[in-house]
Amino acid sequence: xxxxxxxxxxxxxxxxxxxxxxxxxxxxxxxxxxxxxxxxxxxxxxxxxxxxxxxxxxxxxxxxxxxxxxxxxxxxxxxxxxxxxxxxxxxxxxxxxxxxxxxxxxxxxxxxxxxxxxxxxxxxxxxxxxxxxxxxxxxxxxxxxxxxxxxxxxxxxxxxxxxxxxxxxxxxxxxxxxxxxxxxxxxxxxxxxxxxxxxxxxxxxxxxxxxxxxxxxxxxxxxxxxxxxxxxxxxxxxxxxxxxxxxxxxxxxxxxxxxxxxxxxxxxxxxxxxxxxxxxxxxxxxxxxxxxxxxxxxxxxxxxxxxxxxxxxxxxxxxxxxxxxxxxxxxxxxxxxxxxxxxxxxxxxxxxxxxxxxxxxxxxxxxxxxxxxxxxxxxxxxxxxxxxxxxxxxxxxxxxxxxxxxxxxxxxxxxxxxxxxxxxxxxxxxxxxxxxxxxxxxxxxxxxxxxxxxxxxxxxxxxxxxxxxxxxxxxxxxxxxx
Amino acid sequence: xxxxxxxxxxxxxxxxxxxxxxxxxxxxxxxxxxxxxxxxxxxxxxxxxxxxxxxxxxxxxxxxxxxxxxxxxxxxxxxxxxxxxxxxxxxxxxxxxxxxxxxxxxxxxxxxxxxxxxxxxxxxxxxxxxxxxxxxxxxxxxxxxxxxxxxxxxxxxxxxxxxxxxxxxxxxxxxxxxxxxxxxxxxxxxxxxxxxxxxxxxxxxxxxxxxxxxxxxxxxxxxxxxxxxxxxxxxxxxxxxxxxxxxxxxxxxxxxxxxxxxxxxxxxxxxxxxxxxxxxxxxxxxxxxxxxxxxxxxxxxxxxxxxxxxxxxxxxxxxxxxxxxxxxxxxxxxxxxxxxxxxxxxxxxxxxxxxxxxxxxxxxxxxxxxxxxxxxxxxxxxxxxxxxxxxxxxxxxxxxxxxxxxxxxxxxxxxxxxxxxxxxxxxxxxxxxxxxxxxxxxxxxxxxxxxxxxxxxxxxxxxxxxxxxxxxxxxxxxxxxx
Lengths: 482, 482
Known about the structure:
By secondary structure, chain A is of the alpha+beta class. Chain A has helices spanning 2-9, 18-28, 45-64, 78-82, 85-91, 117-127, 172-192, 239-244, 268-277, 305-321, 336-345, 356-361, 382-407, 415-424, 437-447; strands at 32-34, 41-43, 68-69, 75-77, 96-101, 104-112, 136-145, 159-169, 199-202, 214-221, 227-237, 247-249, 255-257, 259-266, 294-298, 326-328, 350-354, 363-368, 374-378, 409-411, 428-433, 450-455, 474-479. In chain A, a hairpin with a 2-residue loop joins strand 5 and strand 6 (104-112).
């Protein structure tokens, strides 16, 4: 058992150093590795498969709401950024530039895309002539680059993977409806699929996307009380339409600018997943996103091995056929105890054990990664039992994350109250805000917390600004954020 | 009907100018558009969906053979290219360079990846220690960039999408087996899914991948007789292992270099698909890859419209439920004739017509895009009839493409014979070759044709070199190529 011990103690406890715990877990579970390029990581197969599962489910939701995928160029001419003033100011500090190609200096520098509003805008101006061409509902799965000074694997890397939706509409009303629809899709996806509760709301002006009229976000709480913005949806008004001359003849034969939206979610979701559900034993993956949902481990003396493994293989085939993502670890040179720890560390939601006595009784043992609950179930009902246990686990993980979030979200009246809460305990703060950038800035300077969003459903509507005491215009969620 | 006429005559006939036909078709069918970045295209939804279908099927084949996906950085440090001499010579002339980021000049230039052997090599050297870590079987779906002087949408663009597999093995034997397995997977995929017959074979040394020991390819014939390399698989020996120090302790506890392979297929496949199957009416898509397999068009007088559309919707639901990719075009302001032409131009394999008389008789009319064959089938058997017709269409398209390929592949004895064949008719030539680079070069200079590959199954084994008359070492397929 010394091997087990060593295994477990390689992960720094969360309480000791949350960031080190995070890095220990993602490296040990082989989700990623650092690359030789500053701020860029390698998504190893175990990590990339999480992304594939996220993609599959999100993509289905996009398509069900009428969107189609496309692919636009990686490079964006420098002049494109100049066309929308706020956009260039927001992104210029982070851009990498291609200045030479095939041995020659380029006439115009090309940015490696940080986001593609400008390129979509340029093409939409060619494609859209009439109201009959609207709406245009296109999404793109792509890599993007933002040269970050401080990076954190998955949560903030210079290159990352994401999807960016870009839509164009006849009217403001329709574009705003789309903006909210996509925010809802993100919220539903993150809650249902990743078992992460989120707070939906509108960003304050200082936190808006560069070039947006309004930005909305979903915000999730990590186990260290910090926030991750897990998805954003922007109503861009006619700003990009004006910048890129995207006009259409409306139903009255008048030339109008389109109203556009954009919305995105990225590989940050992987980081959130780990920080919301993981514990000192390692990863804990909700069944819906887990690459392996059930790990099957044969148990017992060597003389029974062939028989047990034979039965495990039969049950494996049944589960597989039912669509369960299942794997068998029947290595003879590794102890069951070592395997138990390994798959707990890797976050596999359910372990299935089968030994000689279970065979006699027509049973198997199922053990939950999250609760440790052990169920002895009949082999005859295996598929139904496993599916039910997985569904309960998914729900249990959501409930626990929500409980944690609620336990660590405090409604406060004053900046002092906020400070003492954040000193005692990390978490989110809900407070009144007068709407002035100065008060928002002061909160950030004194606490390190930024406004996350103005929640659509605050736990209560606050009366006065936590900083200046003036009447509150909004109730805002503040938190330190990744 | 004037609208129909105009529609059709916008496509240049293949016989008049094949390249113009190609551009006309892909623009008209909205598969792509030119972008403002030199040599880069936009994959519009109709074109990107072809890629999504290709991805889904290829990805399944990769996973069934034990490969997993991952994602490696877009940027590759300049020093990495220097490590493998042939590799740098091959790719240096095509590389775009990032020299500045976030307002600062980089210490080392970063290439935008043209392919990722070097980055995989670097990481594999960290991950592989022992024979127990082998084989490593990783694939990556990604964008790559090669700064091309002459471009052709889908077939040769500066940025393109592809997958690149990179594997590492204990022995040469195992790595060579992998190389051939992946070539076979490409061949099966292209023949079964895209209905394109291919010639499998080995590349001559002058056409090898930069850094490979051996390169294998599948070659397809376009309707203008030119070749497209539709997939390649490389045995890299220990070249990249030596360059990147990828060593492992073998079963005898001796330090050894791994043997690596790489293999790739790209969005070129979309170009091939169009050039192999398209005709003067537009695209023609094999059912397996077609985004829409069946287009349903209600027909008949206005007073019957609601009834007919109602029945069309019921049949639509049946087909959809059975997994057929089906769409309804029930627009009232567009004539059926215009729709017929539109979906023929877009290459939809089957058209389903339903009018009042069909309703009375419990029938529908199915029309094949390829053969024009019309079948009147019972609504009660609709799913089975459609599935059978689609399967036959898939086979028919493959058979026709194979017939065309065979009709335009000529076995020749001499360079003169080759020249007169290529003057009379475009196509592939099979000829004996002594193995000297000089003779291969002379063929290229005098005919514009390059050696495509040394086919595993030539139609006959040639005795003498077509240029010098010396005994033939190989039988080679030559062709002009995209």
